[in-house]
Each structure stands twice: as structure tokens, then as C-alpha cells.
Amino acid sequence: MSQETAIANFKKFQESWIEALRHHLNHLRSAQNHHRNSATGDEERLREAVESVMEHFRAYHRAKWATTEKDVIGVMAAPWSSALERSLHWVGGWRPTTLFHLVYTESSILFESRIVDILRGFRTGDLSDLSPSQFRIKFVKGRTVSEIQCETVKEENAITEELSEWQDDASELVMGTSSDSDQRIRRLAEIVHQTDDLRMRTITRVVELLSPLQQAEFLIAAAELRMGVAGWGTSHDRRRSSNV
């Protein structure tokens, strides 16, 4: 398979993946509402819906991994993304620590909207039960969320340094004076693999920190953010093209 074909195939996969994500998101919302409105709560249905979304993310991870093996430069260029999305990319995709900020933001918004009920002692089990300060000190499996976030930041910084070193040597590759171009391209693919692995590990670790209802709210927020940025970016590109 040629590099052009690999990128074209992944672009088609990306489009169908986003459409399927909407389907999984609707199913997750339905399970979430059923859990909230049920007298006993249907936690098993909610867990299955959460796992379905997580498997969908893992499928994307596997497809991108395979495409990176065939054309890492094409993956870094991300022709399937809008100009806005590419401007936000970090090593070919979203920055893993974004997920922690998303949790803090969502928990803060829900906390403020339900402050009266919380002060009365009512607990919903969703992200409003975790204010930003509570979340930072919450122990999960003997560790704090802030510790996991710090570890993720360290890994991000290490990858950024690796990419910077690769870019410093890229002039020889571009000018065709490098004697080990294949090895350097392979090194770039390894950096992208490390980054995608960190993305998948981060979203998995965050989900593992939360209760099923909190997991649902977090994944819905993450999916809506991703689709929202993609939709806004695509609309902007179309307006820009029509004005040319």
C-alpha cells in the first residue's frame, strides 16, 4: 500500500469514526439518563456504554498506529483535520493533559450549578461531587489525581524534548545529505507512537479514577469538545475558501 493510499484510507476512517462516535455518544447519554431516572439505577448498562466508548477510542488508536507505520510524515501533516485543529495539535494530536483540565472544568461547572443541593447534603454521584480542590486530594489506588497529572506533564515534556532534538537534525533530512534518512523517519514514528500511547493511557487512567456516572459525564464532555472543535474548524475553512 502506498503512502498516499494509507493517508486517504485513514481520512475515510476518520470520517466514519466521528460519525460512529456520535452514535456511541447518544447511547451513552441514554444510559446516563436511564441510570439517573431509575429508582435503583442501572449501573451495568452505564458501564457497558462507557466501555463501548473506550473501545471506540482504542480502535482509533490502533488505526492511527498502523497508518503511522506507513506514513508518519502524512500523519503529522493531518490532512483530515481543519486548520484550527492543526493549530491546536501537539505531536500530531491533542495534548494529554487537556483531559485533566476538562475534568476540573466540568466538575467546577456542575459543582456551582448544584451548590444548593450539595450544601443540603444531597449527592448525585456525578462530577459535581468533586470540586477542583476535592479532586486534587482524592486518593485513588493509593495515589492522588495531581500526582498522575504531574507524571503526564513530565512525559509530555520528555516527548517535546525528543521531538525538538529530532527537528534540530531535520535539516540534513530535508536537504538530502543525511545517510540514515530511513532511520530518522523511523525515529519520528517512534515519537508519534509514544505520544499516542500517552494519549490512550491518560484517558484510560482518568476514566479509572471516576465512578460510572462520572465516567459518562467525562466522556460525553471529551467527545463533545472533540466534535465541537472539528465542526467549528471545518466551518471556518469553508468560509475562508468561499471568500478566496
Automatic annotation (TrEMBL):
Domain of life: Eukaryota
InterPro entries tied to this protein: Seed_Dev/Stress_Resp_Reg (IPR051886), TGA_domain (IPR025422)
PROSITE patterns membership: DOG1 (PS51806)
Residues in DOG1 domain copies: 7-239
GO biological process, one term: DNA-templated transcription
Gene Ontology molecular function: any one: sequence-specific DNA binding
Protein name, as recorded: DOG1 domain-containing protein
Organism for this UniProt entry: Capsella rubella
